[in-house]
Design brief:
The complex is a heterotrimer. Chain A is of the alpha+beta class. In chain A, 27% of the residues lie in helices and 25% in strands. Chain A contains 21 helices and 30 strands.
Chain lengths: 769, 177, 300
């Protein structure tokens, strides 16, 4: 089914958070203010790698209007943070490792005073050699960024005997792929409000994708019991993985506790660029061989991931990439080795796709190159190697079995874009593009395709709790309480839609509470395309009991037999009439009716950390127009076939695929946070270029394949990432079809594709035909 | 403070005898209400709206006019509030997102709501303002007019599909300025 | 820088002169501590980025009479420096007298920025995208030097600008474009810009072309070619112009023109594109326009 508003009918719902968003009334956490509030600011390192010789804050503290200047000496607990490895200093004291490193923080009456105070803090540095290249950092003579070595994480995976297998291959391709340091560029930069409460507790209003994790990390830093910290984490103006790790929270919390005044921090874009996470730039070298029939036999991969100055989730991202460089293909002989390496290049971390984007660009590139050698249609080569129902996962692990890979392959095969390409480049039915004949000779077109399976959940061996609570509150509202965050993905809307569709409630009956650690159960993080699945599974578990409780209470109150009652809009119904409203029902209660569930995200039994169990499958075809005068590429058409189980929320699903693809267009064509000497060259959105509406004015069609095997109990799979992971290799394939040039580095460099069009007559003549 | 590499130099400047210029009396209207504010003449309209008037629907994002999150109408035309200084607003009629739909939602806002032309919502006020500004001048813009009018508004979530559908819906519904 | 300019402690003082003379005197008295401001969009970007310090004094030029006017007489279209880029983009008079310049205005920044940004500011930067278009329209700048308004060709002004010969207080008051005297043929006027995305991007390369096309003789006359881009110096491409002037347009000539542009256009490497790319792009864009003239206009 092509997903759109029309095809969705009444399932296309107005988002419950929409009214406040379009009216500008929604208060983001960075919009909040409090009586007596101070402004917090952070002093960041002036060098990318240096020893700190001294820090002097006296002059800053003497500025009228400055209420606190704090450094490492003022951290009562652990001077470190990091979701996986808490070794990033809250405040540096002996050494700085990137230009976003924090040295001191100031709370002042206003921003200008805080800024002036920052300028008076004197830090003496002794420069240390810069590590700007991951492979240089791996050399034995390289200076160590951390005592345990410059390799944060090393992965290995091996099956079969690739050495021998390559010898028997009819075709072998070797290539090295490079991917950019993409920036999340959430529109709302990091920030929040930090309030020391009169009872000694601390309230943190600041974005994160896992409030309880922030609370745990802050508790360690502040030496404050977790129960004394309340983290309110929604709504969020975009995150894409970038706000999952702590950012301003330690500074706001420390300053608020020190001054006993509310403190607000809100990063400028410059500071956000400088201090914030980016996608791991990877260098992926692949050697892939097949037999004369196009059966892929051997595959060897080496991944070098520039993880920057600190760990955060660098190891986990590498694990993910290690799994996804193998992908949805049956390959008997595989050897993968990966290294996540510390450098002074900012900090790389979690970002939508989580290492899959890089891996899939390389893997799909290999398949296309093999097809070229074989003289075979690349889509046909994929078919010959595609995983089938019953096959193990990429790491040989048991996974939830679906027909997803074949389904998306077939759907794309039947798509207008691929059919048109097969018919020799003629336009598909319904296309409104300009006929090729009217294009000037320097505009050439091509169509390309790619396929991906993308893991969801955190994977084996990583705590991945899920759960939630439903209750009939005393005011008559049906309350759904989950520990998730809303950063735009439509989680609240999806939750509402599930409650409406599965239970029969009306939207008005509901109160959905998320993102407040004081009240929510541990539902795990809002990451890794997991929340929709987890909400669905939680509701599956809660539904029988919660329904029964409501009906039995209604039966007891009204004297009607519970068996003849059902839940509906506004209350409990008997037949076609409303028997008792939820509010009336609640009036008879002394305490809320509560149902709670706790479980774990389903994982594979294979004991390999990070290996996944649930996957989403997608195939994409794109059509590009390439301008040979400038080497610039425009994507005129996209067709996404996505197999992710039932569509929980059509508007959200479509929005995630369209939005994910936009992010992928940036990754492919324009985005790279360029660094030299450990400092960003692209300091703001004037030089870091994300797609505009005009870059995205091509057509995007999304086909949702909803069928799951009958025995499947996992319901809708996540679609938050799948739209963003495979566009790049499809564009590369389309470019190849257009100009027979292979792209191995992103973003695509116009220099590579530009031709000197007019030096000889021949060039014009040949294109002009 | 975007760049601490330059902090020391700025510190010296700031600590020296920079004259704090006299305040500027800004007379203007915001969302139809006449205001008179004493502000530094170079104070950004963005700060005036968000900090002084607590109209936080106008968003802070890039602060150099490259994202459109702080778009407001000045005398009916979209401008970036982060680029506009107080003295440049003298006598102006300023409309923020809060001033669009004081009696319910503006038709453009309704179109965004119904078509799902937003996700995180942070770019939405600026986007809506730009669309209102466009339709005020040209109630039936062509695709290329829409593209030009919205080229200064970055949305990182939607991929613009929902936004285009919302704009087209607003045009179809015949928004009157 | 950051919010320094936001609060009284660091806020610049505002001066609003009512005449060019008064502005010039203020600037002369304050020297580097003051800047002329019209829209202020470029300045704001520099202040926030820390590439320019926030000045102590802003000299607002908007109260000077005549600076926002667009006037036309028998020979010239004159546009005041304070005319916004939006007004330039929409000006029928400019579209007629300087179509390449009107197109350049359409491609600078985005509409909301153009509502603030002015023609004068774009010129005064020394590298604004409007400049190559002004070069091919034989535009002249009215420059105030404290005593007189002098008129000088854009090219001569650029030479002074890029050699550091312009006194700090000198002001660009306006631009005038000669009205086309007509040549019997059709007038070609083109501006093209290439950046790193499809819109709202700093330019990597801009090119502008004007010429009279004599379809019967397949000949171009009064040929003006210019290129610029990024923060590079906008320039006329004299060697390529000379090849084209009066010569019969042919495919082989286009090859020679391409090479002359590629060779003659002085650009620079930046973190996003090499000089060679920019040279090729300028050559390709200019020659593609000529090719279209040859192929399409010749047919029609």
């Amino acid at each position: 089914m092509l997903l759109n508003k029309e095809s969705s009918g009444s399932r296309w719902r107005i988002r419950p958070d929409g009214q406040d968003k379009v009216s500008g009334k929604l208060q983001y956490l960075t919009d909040m203010a409090a009586e007596g509030m101070l402004t917090g600011r952070v002093l960041r390192a002036q060098q990318a790698h240096a020893r700190i010789l001294s820090i002097c804050t006296e002059a800053a503290l003497a500025v009228p209007g400055v209420h606190a200047v704090i450094t490492h000496e003022d951290v009562p607990g652990l001077n470190g943070f990091g979701i996986a490895l808490p070794h990033q200093p809250v405040f540096c004291y002996d050494r700085v490792r990137y230009t976003g490193d924090a040295i001191a923080a100031v709370a002042a009456e206003n921003d200008a005073i805080a800024e002036y105070a920052l300028s008076l803090i004197q830090v003496e540095y002794e420069p240390l050699p810069l590590l700007e290249d991951a492979e240089e950092a791996m050399k034995p003579e390289a200076i160590l960024l951390h005592e345990e070595g410059n390799v944060l994480h090393h992965t290995e995976y091996r099956r079969g005997d690739p050495d021998e297998a390559f010898g028997a291959c009819a075709h072998v391709v070797e290539e090295t792929y490079f991917t950019p340091r993409q920036m999340h560029t959430y529109m709302e930069t990091e920030g929040g409000l930090f309030i020391p409460e009169s009872n000694g507790r601390l309230t943190v209003y600041s974005a994160t994708q896992h409030g309880l994790m922030d609370r745990r990390q802050l508790s360690r830093i502040l030496a404050l019991p977790e129960e004394d910290i309340r983290v309110v984490s929604s709504p969020i103006g975009g995150s894409f993985g970038g706000k999952d790790e702590l950012n301003v929270q330690p500074y706001g919390a420390l300053l608020a506790l020190r001054t006993r005044r509310p403190v607000r921090l809100h990063n400028s874009r410059y500071e956000s660029v400088r201090a914030g996470l980016k996608r791991h730039p990877m260098k992926i070298t692949m050697k892939t061989g097949c037999d004369s029939e196009g059966q892929i036999v051997a595959h060897r991969v080496r991944i070098i991931s520039d993880t920057g100055a600190y760990a955060t989730l660098g190891a986990e991202v590498l694990n993910f990439a290690t799994e996804h460089v193998i992908g949805p293909y049956r390959i008997p002989h595989v050897e993968v080795e990966g290294f996540a390496v510390y450098t002074n290049n900012g900090v790389s971390g979690e970002f939508r796709g989580f290492g899959g984007n890089q891996a899939i660009f390389a893997l799909e590139g290999q398949v296309d190159r093999l097809a070229q050698q074989l003289g075979l249609d690349p889509w046909e080569l994929r078919r010959r190697n595609l995983r089938q129902y019953g096959d193990p996962g990429p790491l040989g692990q048991p996974i939830a079995q679906t027909h997803g890979a074949v389904q998306v392959w077939e759907a794309l095969k039947a798509s207008p874009l691929l059919r048109a390409a097969e018919d020799g480049g003629c336009e598909g039915e319904g296309s409104d593009s300009q006929p090729e004949g009217q294009l000037p000779p320097w505009i050439v077109t091509g169509t390309g395709a790619a396929l991906a399976m993308h893991g969801a959940g955190l994977g084996y061996g990583i705590p991945d709790p899920a759960g939630g609570r439903l209750s009939l509150a005393l005011d008559g509202k049906i309350e759904a309480v989950f520990g998730y965050e809303e950063f735009g993905q439509g989680l609240i809307a999806t939750m509402e839609q599930m409650l409406v569709e599965q239970f029969g409630f009306a939207g008005d009956d509901l109160r959905i509470i998320i993102g407040d650690t004081d009240v929510v159960p541990d539902s795990g993080s809002s990451t890794a395309s997991r929340s929709t699945s987890m909400m669905w599974m939680a509701l599956q578990r809660l539904r029988p009991e919660f329904t029964a409780q409501l009906l039995e209470t209604a039966a007891a109150t009204t004297g009607e037999p519970a068996g003849e009652l059902k839940l509906g809009c506004g209350g409990v119904w008997k037949g076609c009439s409303l028997l008792i409203s939820y509010a009336q029902l609640a009036r008879g209660l002394k305490e809320p009716l509560v149902c709670e569930t706790k479980f774990q995200y389903p994982t594979t039994p294979l004991q390999r950390v990070g290996a996944h169990f649930l996957y989403t499958y997608s195939a994409i075809a794109v059509r590009v127009e390439l301008n040979l005068l400038t080497g610039r590429v425009r994507i005129t058409d996209q067709y996404h076939a996505v197999a992710a189980g039932p569509v929980a929320n059509p508007q959200g699903y479509l929005g995630q695929i369209e939005g994910g693809s936009s992010m992928a267009v940036g990754f492919t064509l324009s985005e790279d946070a360029v660094m030299t000497g450990g400092a960003y060259v692209t300091k703001n959105m004037d030089t870091y270029l994300v797609p505009t509406l005009i870059d995205m004015n091509g057509r995007i069609q999304v086909e949702a394949i909803e069928d799951l095997p009958e025995h499947d109990t996992y319901g809708p799979r996540g679609i938050g990432e799948i739209g963003s992971v495979h566009l790049a290799p499809a564009v590369a394939a389309a470019i190849f079809q257009a100009v027979r040039k292979r792209v191995n580095k992103l973003p695509v460099e116009p220099e590579l594709l530009q031709e000197t069009f007019f030096t000889t007559q021949k060039a014009v003549g040949s294109y002009a035909g | 403070m975007p760049d601490n590499f330059r902090l020391e130099e700025m510190g010296e400047m700031a600590g020296a005898d920079i004259p704090a210029g006299p305040l500027y009396t800004l007379n203007c209207t915001v969302n139809g209400r006449a205001l008179s504010l004493e502000v530094p003449p170079g104070r950004r309209l963005l700060s005036i709206l968000r900090e002084d008037l607590e109209l936080t629907g106008t968003k802070r994002s890039c602060e150099i006019g490259r994202c459109g999150a702080c778009m407001v109408l000045v005398d009916g035309r979209p401008v970036n509030a982060c680029l506009t200084m107080a003295y440049q607003c003298g006598g102006a009629e300023i409309t923020t997102i809060e001033g669009l739909g004081e009696a319910g939602l503006h038709p453009v806002q309704r179109a965004f709501l119904e078509e799902g032309g937003f996700q995180c919502g942070y770019c939405t006020p600026g986007m809506v303002i730009s669309v209102v500004g466009l339709l005020r001048e040209n109630p039936s813009p062509a695709q290329e007019d829409i593209e030009e009018a919205l080229s200064g508004n970055i949305c990182r979530c939607t991929g613009y599909g929902g936004i285009m559908r919302a704009v087209n819906k607003a045009i179809e519904s015949g928004v009157s300025p | 820088m950051g919010a320094l300019q936001d609060e009284p402690l660091f806020s610049p003082a505002l001066r609003q002169p009512r005449s060019l003379r008064e502005a010039w005197e203020l600037k002369s008295a304050c020297a580097e501590q003051a800047v002329y401001v019209s829209g202020g969009t470029l300045l704001r970007t520099q202040w926030e980025a820390g590439t320019a310090a926030v000045p102590q004094v802003l000299i607002d030029l908007r109260n000077i009479a005549g600076m926002e006017d667009v006037t036309r007489d028998d020979d010239y279209l004159t546009i005041g420096s304070l005319v916004t880029l939006t007004a330039c983009r929409r000006s029928g008079a400019l579209a007629s007298a300087g179509p390449a310049a009107a197109e350049a205005a359409r491609q600078i920044a985005a509409p909301a920025v153009r509502n603030l940004a002015t023609l004068g500011g774009n010129i005064a930067s020394g590298y604004g995208d409007i400049l190559p278009a002004l070069l091919v329209h034989d535009a002249e700048l009215a420059v105030y030097d404290g005593n007189l308004l002098r008129v000088q060709p854009v090219e001569a002004w650029l030479e002074r600008r890029w050699s550091g010969a312009i006194p700090p207080a000198e002001l660009v008051a306006g631009v005038r474009l000669p009205l086309d005297q007509g040549s019997g043929g059709s007038r070609l006027a083109v501006f093209r810009k290439v950046g790193r995305r499809e819109a709202f991007t700093a330019s990597l390369v801009t090119i502008a072309v004007t010429a009279d096309w004599d379809a019967a003789a397949r000949t171009l006359r009064r040929v003006r070619l210019a290129a610029g881009g990024g923060s590079g110096r906008p320039q006329r491409l004299a060697a390529a112009e000379a090849l084209l002037e009066g010569a019969e347009l042919s495919r082989s000539l286009l090859g020679a023109v391409y090479e002359a542009v590629e060779h003659g256009f002085a650009s620079y490497d930046d973190p996003f594109a090499g000089e060679q790319y920019k040279k090729k792009t300028a050559g390709n864009l200019i020659v593609s326009e000529l090719w279209q003239t040859l192929e399409l206009k010749a047919r029609s």
